[in-house]
Each structure stands twice: as structure tokens, then as C-alpha cells.
Amino acid sequence: MKAILIVAVVAVIGGGGTLLVRSTRGPAGNGGVPAVMLFTAARGKLTVTITENGSLMAKNSEKITFTAHRGGKIAFLVEEGKTVEENEVLCRIETTELEKRVEQLKLDILKTGADLGSARTELEIQKSENVANVEKSKIAYAKAKNELEKYRDGDAPKQRRELEIKIKEARTKFSRAKKRFEDSSELLGKEFINKAQFEQDQIDYERAEIQMEGARKDLALFEKYTEPMTMTEKQTALSDAERGRGNAEKRGKSNLRKREVAFESSTRRLATLKDSLEEMEKELERFTIRSPSPGIVLYGDPSRSWYRDQIKLGGQIWGGFTIFTIPDLRVMKVQIEVHEADINKIKVDQVATVTMDTYPGLVLKGKVSKIASIAGKRGGGRNEEVKKFTVDIILESTKDQILKPGISAKAEIFVEERDDVVYVPIQSVFLEKGRHYSYVMNEKNQPIRVEVKPEINNETYIQIAEGIEPGDQVLLYNPALRAQAEAVALKDKPDVAVAGGTVGP
Predict the structure, then answer these.
(1) 79 shares its domain with 164
(2) Residues 335 and 358 sit within 8 Å (Cβ to Cβ)
(3) Which of 22, 253, 388, 391 is the most buried (most CB within 10 A)?
């Protein structure tokens, strides 16, 4: 509006005339208004469009992200803009450290596999030993029990009986020796035997007596010491054998569990190492990035262009970093930003016309396909934030033209068209205290302020439903505001020469 008004003023001044403007409150004073400052209200077709600049991009683009769990430096990088085939290598990341870890894992797997084999063998041996030890302990227990029973029920009574028999035999022998000795004493007195025979009988008597006392003592010692001590030894041996049997089972279970734990530990460690190796080998594969589909290579993510500087030989990248974008050039779109004041005019499937400076003369048709639900913030004047909505326009056809994504494009969206309406330039309508006004020239060629009812508008014209008729001439500026501005300017500079005349208060 300001641009049009300035052009009009310059046109008048450049014409060589003298322009005299007076500051008034209400209708302008008498005097003609230059034709360049007027517009004749017309009736006809009014087309409303919204034009915005944006960027051309593919509708569908496949982003190739570095999916490894660790970062690395780029060792090989395909040239940007190159056309690549499916599965073609686009980038390789330095893998020296990763390859070392893979080799170390392989060595660890070999060692752990050997440990697992040893643990399996030791486990089998322990199982066999446990069976043998338990069986031995059972045999030892049965033997000790039998020996106790054998001694208690057999050997001890037998020994007792033998000792008792020896006592009887010694007693019988003693009785006989005593009788013989007594007889010898009587016969010696009668001199039927000699003294030597008597002494021999006496010795036999005394020996028999000693033997009888010995036999008695043997039985007493057996009953007091031998039998109790032997029974105690047998019972102790049985108790030891019983404990040995229980200990053999417990020790066997304990040793078996140790072997099982060693076996399980080696098994789990081997499985973990194999999983780590498998994951590391997959990680190694991730360090080589291939194209998932044919297309043109673009570096980075177009929506996050500030990361592009990292995409170079020796550049450091990390997991989740988008290295490439492969656009599908068969279907293209233009993405624009629409001011919040105009966004309600935009609807899905509205027709748009797209032009690009890169392709002069090429005009493409498209349709609005997507309108952002949330506004983004853009820097405005005086550090203010202007809210704009992202709008996507899908091109219906590229006319067999291979378009380059990323270039600038201009989109003109058709919003509405009305036939047989009255319209005037936008700068002819002014808003004051919630109402719209225009200045219309009356029959005396003087501008009169009238209230109007505006409706739709485009970037140049606005429809007037009430207040102005076709043929009415309207001012292209607000004389009240202009008069105030000129009054302020003339206050600072009271005399200003214009084309041979003077503009004054």
C-alpha cells in the first residue's frame, strides 16, 4: 500500500505541477485530486490467490540414518548429487577399533569353548565319582554294621564260651592234679613212690592251680575290657561309616554343583560372547552405508541443514545421525510457509501454480496436500517472531522434466473466485475503531468518507459489498493521515520548493 502511494506522489511531482495539500478534519477541502491518486470502482471477476516462496523437494524421500550404537569418522563418502543404484556403497565409517574388538571376541570364544569342554568333562567325571563314592560309603556302612552284629551275636559269645570252657577244663585239671598230689603225699609217706614222683605231682598241681586262676582272669578281662572295647570299636566304625555315607552324598552334591556352576558359567559366557560377536559383526556391517533404493544422493536431512558440515571425509558422526537423503524424484512437492493471517484461506486440494527461476518458462500445476496443524516461529522485524504454517503442494506432473530438489520455487494458490463483484484497491479501505471506510469523490469533486463493508481480497484488490458502487472514484490513500504526516514534516521545514511552486501549510 505504501509502495503504491509513494509511486503516485512521485508521478504527480514529476509531472511538473504544483501540489498543495491542506490538513483537514473530515472531507478534503476544495481543489482537484490528481487522477493518479484515484481509482474507479469496477465490477467484474475477483480472483483471490496466495503467493509464497518455498523450496522444491521430493514428496517421498528416504532418509538414511547411521544406525550403529557408536560413532566414528567417515573414511569414504560418495559425491553429493551422484545418481546411485540400489545397494551401492554410499559411505564407510572407520572400523579399525571395531575390527580389533571382533578379533578379540573370536579369541575369547575359542578359549571359552575350550573351558566349556573341560567343564563338561569334569562334570561327567564328578557324576561318576559321586555314584562310586556313594556306593563305597554304602558298602562300608553295611560292612561295619555286619561286623558289629557278627561280633555282638557271634564272636563275643563264642569267645566267652571258649573262656568258660577253658575255666572248666582248668578246674577239672586242677581237681585231678590236686587229687593226684594228695594221693602222692599219702603214698610218699608209705614209701610207695619216690620223692621225685611226689614233687612232679606237686608241680602239676600248682601249675593246674595257676592255669585255673589264669582262665578265670581271662574271662574277667574279656567281660571287663575286651568285649566292651571291641563293641565300642565296632559301633564307632558303624557310626563313622554312617557319617561317611551321608558325607559322601553331601560332598558329591556340593562338588557336582560346583562343576555344574562352572559348566553353566562357561555355557553362558560362550553364549554371551557369541551374541556379542554377532552384534559386533552387525555393527561392523552398519559401518558401511548402502543405498536402499536408486536415486540422487543428498547430504544430511534437508530439514536439519545445520548438520551438513559434519558430512565430510574425517567428519565425526554418531548413532541416529542422518547422513543421506535419497529423494524419489518421480513425485515432487513444493513446501512453503504461510502467514497465520492467511492460513485459514488455505484448504487441502486447492489448486496451485508453481514456477521456478531455475527453469524459466516452466509452469507446473499442483494441489495442496498438507497443512501443518501447529505454527512454527520465524524471525520478524525488530526481533519479533512471525508465526507461519508449513503447507505442502504436490505437483501433478513435472512434464518429464528432472527437477533438482532443494531449489527455490514460487507457489500461487488459488483460494476463491467471485464473478460480478465490486472491487477497489486494498489501499482504498481504512480501518478505524473496528469499522472500514473509504474516501469517495462526490459531485463537487471532493473526497467524502463513507463506511464500507469489505469481503474477500487478494494481494491487490478487495471486494466491497456495501458503500461503493461501480464507477465511484475512490482515493488511493487516507487524506487525514497524509495531512497529519505532512503537517509534521512542514513544521520541521516550513518552506519546501516543488517544481517551481511551494508546498506549505
Answers:
(1) no
(2) no
(3) 391
| Domains in the chain, number | 3
Are 230 and 343 part of one and the same domain? no
What DSSP string describes 168-201? HHHHHHHHHHHHHHHHHHHHHHTTSS-HHHHHHH
State pTM to two decimals. Answer: 0.49
Say yes or no to pLDDT of 357 above 60: yes
**Within a domain: 251:** yes
Q: How far apart are CA 48 and CA 404, in angstroms?
A: 30
Instruction: Assign residue 382 a region (left: φ > 0; alpha: ψ between -120 and 50; beta: otherwise).
Output: left
Q: Are 11 and 5 in contact (CB under 8 A)?
A: no
Here the CATH number for the domain that contains residue 306 is 2.40.50.100
pLDDT of res. 399: 73
Residue 402, domain CATH: 2.40.30.170
Domain identity same for 361 and 392:
yes
> Is residue 298 domain-resident?
yes
The CA distance from 114 to 112, in Å, is: 5
Domain of 207, in residue numbers: 98-285
pLDDT tens track for 137-174:
999 999 999 999 998 999 999 999 999 999 999 999 99
Residue 81 has pLDDT above 90, yes or no: no
**Which pLDDT band holds residue 492 (cuts at 50, 70, 90)?**
low
Phi and psi, residue 332, nearest 5°: -110, 160
Q: Which three cell numbers stand for residue 114?
A: 575350550
Residues 6+ apart with CB under 8 A from 32: 445
Half-sphere exposure of 372 (CA within 13 A, CB side): 16
Residue 495 lies in a domain: no
**DSSP H helical segments within 434-501, as ranges?**
479-492
Cα of 269 vs its chain's centroid, Å: 25
Integer Cα distance of 505 and 502 in angstroms: 10
Which of 367, 386, 420 represents a domain boundary (last residue)?
420
CATH number, domain of 203, equals 1.10.287
CB–CB of 325/298 below 8 Å?
yes
Q: Is residue 437 in some structural domain?
A: no
Listed in sequence order, the residues at least 6 apart from 27 whose beta carbon sits closer than 8 Å to its beta carbon are 446, 447, 448, 449
Q: What's the N-to-C CA distance of the chain in angstroms?
A: 25
Task: Say which amino acid occupies 327.
Answer: P
